[in-house]
Amino acid sequence: MVRIVPVALGVLAFELVAAAPAPGILLYAATPDEAKDFAIASAYGRGWSVPVVGETTVEIEQILEESDPDDPLASRRLIRISAVFVAEDSGTRVLLRAREVQTSTNGEEWSTDVTERYAENLGNALSSLRSKWDGHRDTGQSKTREPARPPATGGESADRAAETGAGPVGTWAYYAERYAESRGCVLTDAETTLEASGPDWERHRIRCRDGRSLHVHCHLGDCTTRR
């Protein structure tokens, strides 16, 4: 009997190997321990097992196919995702890598790096993790105006601008503001300005109460003040 289990990648993964670049995302204001614990909880919530937890790494697994579900020693094929949590000035970056693993009845393993194949799934999992983290964390900072909303679709963004009479805010204004706050910027009443954009990037101008203006560059929602 062969059981094949559909997989919806949830969160996590990385291992240092010479292969495709590991997808990553920044969790603003998170320490590596906070990011790791949050990712583990998310993985458990999505039905993944977590066999290995290191100081700054985690491995999660889910069975894709097994020859005998009732035999723990039966051969099986599984997806193993590894994560590393790297501290940065603005928070913790989560980097993911995926491997497909084949096990035999005598315990031997063969693995293939499938990070590139699952790049879209991993990217979606990372985006979901960051959205959950943004909703979970309390910045502890008072604001003088309502911040930009989380990313919307292009049509929703256009409708929003038409309703308010404001210029376009961009898809990643929300994350640009969160990044600015992580750099010590207290937002003013002035709206964040979308200065320029491309298919996968945006440049925002954010005004701070101390008189500074930050020019924040976002690539697929990952923001920095460096080009």
Automatic annotation (TrEMBL):
Protein name: Uncharacterized protein
Biased composition (Basic and acidic residues): 131-148
Organism of this sequence: Thiocapsa roseopersicina
Entry keywords, A to Z: Signal
Signal peptide start and end residues: 1-19
Lineage: Bacteria, Pseudomonadati, Pseudomonadota, Gammaproteobacteria, Chromatiales
Entry superkingdom: Bacteria
Region entry Disordered, spans: 129-165
Keyword Signal: yes
